[in-house]
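Try this one yourself first.
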């Protein structure tokens, strides 16, 4: 498997590749390039890896944070060709060890039940007592 290197800022073609990754996942399918560019501009921290030889985006996540109390992790995606090869581990290691997030009390994310064992490896728990995740959607 091609070695991966850290990407600090996505190039235009990597943004298009992110669009491609988004089309493959149930919660990001249908996102359009213009919105993705805006989302990247306004995400506090982006953690990404690309293939060293081709520059192709291989793993991505983005984080919204106040840098003190909370860091909310979104859109954790490894490109299908790289799954099961340690890229997800690389991504999560880089998120929880990110120097800008060193002081953060809580990393949080939401995921389907089948991903709980994956995130447990980095100390995430779904034992939140009576806490409930709530959402208000924009009226159609
Ligand atoms: C979930 C995902 C990020 C994992 O990435 P990956 O590159 O396949 O993971 P890795 O190969 O680095 O595996 C790291 C460890 O997690 C384990 N693991 C991987 N996927 C897992 C899963 N679905 N459930 C439980 N453990 C999992 C591996 O066995 C490995 O364990 P080990 O290192 O202790 O042996 C990847 O499958 C993916 O992008 N899925 C589609 C998008 C998605 O669902 N993202 C999560 C949104 S909440």
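Now uncover the answer:
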């Amino acid at each position: 498997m091609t070695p991966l290197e850290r990407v600090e800022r996505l190039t235009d073609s990597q943004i298009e590749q992110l669009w491609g990754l988004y089309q493959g996942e149930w919660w990001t399918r249908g996102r359009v390039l213009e919105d993705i560019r805006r989302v990247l501009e306004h995400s506090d921290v982006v953690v990404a890896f690309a293939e060293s030889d081709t520059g192709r985006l291989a793993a991505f996540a983005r984080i919204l944070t106040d840098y003190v109390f909370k860091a909310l992790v979104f859109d954790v995606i490894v490109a299908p060709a790289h799954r099961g090869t340690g890229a997800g581990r690389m991504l999560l290691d880089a998120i929880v060890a990110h120097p800008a997030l060193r002081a953060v009390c809580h990393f949080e994310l939401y995921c389907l039940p089948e991903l709980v064992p994956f995130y447990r490896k980095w100390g995430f728990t779904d034992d939140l007592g009576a806490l409930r995740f709530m959402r208000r959607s924009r009226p159609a």
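Discussion: Strands lie at 4-7, 45-51, 57-65, 70-78, 106-108. The CA atoms of residues 88 and 114 lie 15 Å apart.
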